Amino acid sequence: MRLAFLSIGRHIHTERWIRWFAAQGHECHLLTVQPGPVPDVTVHDIRRGGGPKAWRYAQSLGVVRGLLRRLQPQLLNTHFLTGYGYWGHFSGFHPNVLTVWGDDVYVTPHETPLKGWLARRALRSCDALTGDSLDILAAAGRLGADPERSFRVLWGVDFDRFRPGDAGAWRAAQGCAPEDVLVLSPRSFTQAYYNIDTVIAAAAQVARAEPRARFLFAGYEGDPAPFRARAQAAGLGDAARFLGRLTHEEFATALRASDIFVSVPSVDATAVSLLEAMSCSCAVVVSRLSSSLEWIVDDESGCVVPARDASALAAVLLRLCRDPHLRRRLGAAALARARRDAGFAPNMQRVDRIFATLTSGTPDWPREVSLRALGAPAGGTGS
């Protein structure tokens, strides 16, 4: 089958998703404004011209339409509602499966009336919708997506790579003694809603009370310098290190080396880093979001705190630093939960069933992960 994908280029989510379909023998084409080589995939640069943003969008839409006419794929899979979702909608191509990611649903459609109108048009016109949490599907439904064709599909975890194991040498290379407790915060430095400032404030409180605590910040994009300066001003000193972007392989090593994983955004869908941390048996600390609560039960498979409460976060981190038995108990429960539902291949097979249903006309929807079957989460706000 010939498949076309509109998605963010040079991104691990895009590459893993499309390469899975290429490995199944499909002819795969990626249309993107961030071109770069992807093994076994033909990449098309849809950037054109200069001038105002609206004009550049219009020119790229013309390129998308032309490529779809020439390639004649059996199906288009559009990733990310903002920008790419608009191009997918206005291309007029069907069947079009839309995959939403996070702030493209939670944030952008609510910024201006125009962005809200564009989001609603794209969500109403797609033939099926996938998202990685019930909460994001419910939020998309409030914007017009069809709940009967909305399916929870996770980015999924490679259990061969993300698994418990020894990473003592890597810990030592980060300046951690065997008795130290290593806390990893891996979220982006670019968006305020990831609340890295809150993690730093909490870390400073913990470091004053527990000298064995060590903190690693591994933002996968953005400039860490302002946060490094904030950590120094808070008195963290040598207790904190900023590593910047880690490769997928090194991130797995970092998780195996870490005792505690912390991710406390104000808004998010199911973070793949959370699932990967669970798969490495880390003790996880998350913010009280509906998407996180799909995976973490407080004091059973992790710890849950309010999103921007540094004192509450510090109290939980201090408790975990001082109680290795608690860390092991929470990590074991998180690992079991991830192993049951978060595998990469089973989730991609569900996407394959959606694609096959839309191209063959034989209904084989993955109803077991539909919004209707799983039920919308309580609250359903993403924050």
User: How can the largest sheet be summarized?
Assistant: 7 strands, parallel
CATH architecture term of the largest domain: 3-Layer(aba) Sandwich
Secondary structure tally: strands = 13
Q: Give the assembly state of these chains.
A: single chain
Residue share in helix: 40-55%
Neighbour order of strands in the largest sheet: 3-2-1-4-5-6-7
Strand and helix order = EHEEHEHEHHEHEHEHEHEHEHEHEHHHH
For the record, what CATH class of the largest domain applies? Answer: Alpha Beta
**Low-confidence runs:** 377-383
CATH topology of the largest domain: Rossmann fold
- SS-based class: alpha/beta
Question: In angstroms, what is the radius of gyration?
Answer: 21 Å
Beta-strand residue fraction = 5-15%
Give the overall pLDDT as a whole number.
94
Distance between the termini: 39 Å
Q: How many domain modules?
A: 2
Shape: globular
CATH superfamily of the largest domain: Glycogen Phosphorylase B
Alpha plus pi helix count: 16
